[in-house]
Amino acid sequence: MIQQRRFFLARSGQMTLSAAAIAALAGTATGAAAQASAQSSAAMSADVDILNIALGLEHEAINAYQLGAGSGLLQKPVLDVAVLFQSHHKGHRDALINAIQKMGGKPVGEKSLDEYAKALNAASLKTQADVLTLAARLELGATNAYLGVIPAFKEGKLGQVAARLAADETMHWTALSSALGKMLPSGALSFGA
């Protein structure tokens, strides 16, 4: 009987120790989960910051095309292409806003058309070629920006979105460069460097 009590007390002690160990492990697991959650939140915040920079580029592109379309400098077929490209940028904007909001972020706002006109030096645009040159420069910058941020995304699917946006920007740059009579790049791996 005494031996059974000792065995029971010994087993109770082990059980208490095991329960304490489990509680400690649970505390450690909770701490690890909290740390992982904080890291995930920081990664998401970094992704939102990148997406907001991209959204700023899209706002700029939409307004640059608006300035070009409203300038009276674009001939009919070129004007149609500018309006088409502007619609692409509006689609990019909407996709970025949606992604930012789904991630709990606040999308960066659009500036006024006058602010974009000043920043882009729209007063210097005197010909259709000037407008196309500005648009091509912005498209190339956006292409390189999207390609450059792909490795920075913590969420892999965002890299795919950035690649798709870069593909659109590259198409825009190619069409604009062609309209300007510029040669396509002669070397491989011309973008994103």
Provide the CATH topology: Ferritin
Question: SSE order in H/E notation?
Answer: HHHHH
Low-confidence stretches: 1-37
Strand content: under 5%
Helical coverage, percent range: over 70%
Element layout with pairings:
Layout: H1 2-70, H2 76-102, H3 113-119, H4 128-149, H5 156-179
Helix pairs in contact: 1-2, 1-4, 2-5, 4-5
Question: Can you put this structure into words, describing what you see?
Answer:
The chain is an all-alpha fold. The chain has one domain (41-179): Ferritin, CATH 1.20.1260. Helices cover 77% and strands 0% of the residues. The protein has helices spanning 2-70, 76-102, 113-119, 128-149, 156-179. α1 (2-70) packs antiparallel against α2 (76-102) and α4 (128-149) runs antiparallel to α5 (156-179). The chain is globular. Mean pLDDT is 83; it is low at 1-37.
Q: Key features?
A:
193 residues, Ferritin, mainly alpha, 77% helix, single chain
Quick recap:
With 193 residues, this protein is mostly helical. It is built from five helices and no strands.
